[in-house]
Amino acid sequence: MIESREAVAGIIGLGYVGLPLAAAVARGGFRVLGFDIDESKVELINAGTSYIEAVPTEDLAAHVTAGKLRATGDFSELAQCDVIVICVPTPLSKQREPDLRFVVNTAQIIARHLREGQLVVLESTTYPGTTEEVVKPVLEEGGLRSGQDFFLAFSPEREDPGNAKFRTTTIPKVVAGEGPSASALVEAFYGAVVERVVVVSSPSTAEAVKITENVFRAVNIALVNELKVIYQAMGIDVWEVIGAAATKPFGFMPFYPGPGLGGHCIPIDPFYLTWKSREFGLPTRFIELAGEINVSMPRYVIGNLERAIDARHGKSLGSSKILIIGLAYKKNVPDIRESPAFVLIELLEQRGTKVDYFDPYVPEVPVTREHAALAGRRSVELTAETIAGYDAILIATDHDNIDYGLIDTHASLIVDTRNVLDNRGYRSDKIVKT
Question: Is 265 one of the catalytic residues?
């Protein structure tokens, strides 16, 4: 059924991972049912309207019109699906331990509608062992057995919001099934959708692949953040250092510092491995140290901002008015998950500072579990008069579509955490790189 494209695919969770995957699977010729508990998402998709930049509305509308893609909140329709892919969040608890509630709840829902012959794939990032130790037992509670009655696999998502070079279909897809039959099925399914499939030996190995990718980035970002602190104390520009080092054609890969670490994956996923390693009595010193360094960066930025305001205006931070540029966790996307900009706002407001933000991608702060107190705040208009009214402009996210010339002309003090002004040729004594 997979080779003939007669199989029906069900995608559970229609966010930054699920919706691009649903569109890619529909483009591959399959009929797709998208499942989500958010009624507004269901309505938008069925109207052919995309809410994620990676999925153009015209493409989504074409899939909907052709009958290839439909969204629903009725999970009983899972029984119609031959392939079910789980794309739900895997956050951390307040104690920085894995929170698998969404995965477990989804597996329980699938179990109620599970039938023989179905392939169930987990894409949510998690610690090695989750597919076989957590998801499998839940699915087997109804009496069906993995590898015999249904098939179970893991394939880590590799979405990179805002990256125009790589899309769902062009990013190599790592897959692994529990047993040879499941591996063959999951390879065939994704092979019909993406350009390249990489098969590994077990779901635990595939889970470890994703964790390794994110640990690699977290540790290297922490390294350059620490180097930034050291070199700044020495009067050395870390961005100039990295730029020159990057000219070496071998043995060096450039990473860049910032005001903290954001996104759903890199600040969170390494701690899944840290938690799992305790089961084996093994320390994860690099991972934990990297986490400490990256988490400390917003306070480092605030300290430099405070000194800059005192030197420039002779004012305290608590009596100042600050405009933060960029609320998204990375440039050119509306994604605010784990964004360090929220931490900067909260740290400043704890000091009594008046804070506003400007972000062309985030006109209003949505309701989030982590930053509920900031929900409803709206982006200010970026004008010469607005800019001149702040004691300092703090650049947290370097979106390309911001008028940095306007900021440079009218701001009295600019604290740049992304080196965006220097990269564009703006250099003056009112610009502080941190």
Answer: yes
Same domain, 278 and 174: no
Q: What are phi and psi of 92, to 5 degrees?
A: -105, 150
pLDDT in tens, 93-145: 877 788 999 999 999 999 999 999 999 999 999 999 999 999 999 999 989 99
Starting at the edge strand found earlier in the chain, the sheet holding 321-325 runs: 354-358, 321-325, 392-395, 414-416, 431-433
Coil, helix or strand at residue 146:
strand
C-beta atoms surrounding 406 within 10 Å: 14
CATH code at position 122: 3.40.50.720
Mark whether 222 and 190 lie in a shared domain.
no
Contact (Cβ atoms closer than 8 angstroms) between residue 295 and residue 260: yes
Neighbours of 40 (CB within 10 A): 9
Number of domains in the chain: 2
Same domain, 226 and 173: no
Domain around 49: 8-201
Q: Which of 336, 287, 320, 309 is nearest to 434 (CA)?
A: 309
Q: Which of 152, 265, 420, 432 is catalytic?
A: 265
Tens-digit pLDDT profile for residues 276-295: 999 999 999 999 999 999 99
